[in-house]
Specification:
Elements lengths: L1 H22 L2 H8 L2 E7 L2 E8 L4 H11 L4 E2 L6 E5 L3 E7 L7 E7 H7 L2 H4 L5 H7 L31 H5 L4 E2 L6 E2 L75
Antiparallel strand pairs: 1-2, 2-6, 3-4, 4-5, 5-6, 7-8
InterPro entries: DUF4247
Organism: Paenibacillus roseus
Protein name: DUF4247 domain-containing protein
């Protein structure tokens, strides 16, 4: 019975966590680590370019693979690599303007179908994956070969532009100092602050309860210092004074005290 209960408990935990994990994509991890540099497309056809500073193509690929294993990956290469995920294809390219950096291009699969050349991808990905991606020749694609050569092999539609504030708002929340507390990203937000607790307000009119150290009182708390207490009182609560009802002489009737 105990084993059955443990099995049910773990099954329930997994059923709650699995939809959350499934809803996340590799782009969520990339957005948290690298700054957004350029954007192209809209709707289902999007391409986002991030910069991994001071990181080679293989180093950047290894870091992403450790965070989320791809369905397919191209062989390690210092110039470019591809990582294929469920919803995106990551195109890692050495920056021709700054060889120490890697450009991380996150393309939706629809963007790849409409812009990339299937012949170009055959040098990096397996044929079966390319056939599925282009639906056995249904999509003709284009001559695009990645962000670094966008001026020579241009995308079919649109052109890359600097990201707007609206583009940056699409990035997921980040944690402050990795404490797990989530804050909404804002351009004016200062994430390096020190929250100080305000001093407790003092009010002389309010009393304070303290533990009584006098065992003779018979109570757990000390007597309130309000007025003069009778010496014979054994407790901090004084007994109410109760007087006998007044009786009118000769009548024999008892009147209620008003």
């Amino acid at each position: 019975m105990k084993s059955l209960l443990h099995g049910i408990k773990y099954a329930l935990i997994f059923s709650f966590l699995f939809p959350l994990l499934a809803g996340c994509s590799i782009q969520d991890n990339i957005q948290e680590q690298y700054p957004l540099e350029s954007v192209n497309g809209s709707g289902s056809q999007t391409s986002y370019v991030y910069r991994a500073a001071n990181s080679t193509v293989p180093e950047t690929a290894d870091a992403l693979i450790k965070q989320r294993k791809p369905q397919e990956q191209s062989p390690a290469d210092n110039e470019r690599m591809f990582l294929v995920y469920d919803k995106e294809i990551i195109h890692l390219q050495r920056d021709s303007q700054n060889s120490e950096d890697t450009l991380v291009e996150v393309d939706s699969k629809e963007y790849v179908r409409q812009n990339y050349s299937s012949n170009f991808l055959q040098g990096y990905l397996v044929g079966s994956l390319i056939r599925d991606l282009f639906d056995n020749g249904r999509y003709n694609g284009g001559d695009y070969r990645g962000y670094t050569s966008k001026d020579i092999y241009k995308p079919q539609k649109g052109s890359y532009r600097a990201p707007t504030q609206e583009d940056k708002k699409k990035a997921p929340p980040v944690t402050v100092n990795r404490t797990g507390s989530i804050f909404k990203r804002s351009k004016d937000a200062d994430t390096s602050f020190d929250r100080k607790t305000p001093p407790a307000a003092t009010n002389p009119s309010k009393g304070k309860i303290t533990r009584n150290t006098d065992s003779s009182s018979g109570g757990l708390f000390s007597k309130p210092k309000v007025g003069k207490q009778p010496a014979s009182s054994g407790s901090w609560l004084s007994k109410p004074k109760i007087s006998k009802p007044k009786v009118k002489i000769g009548s024999g009737r008892v009147f209620r005290r008003r």
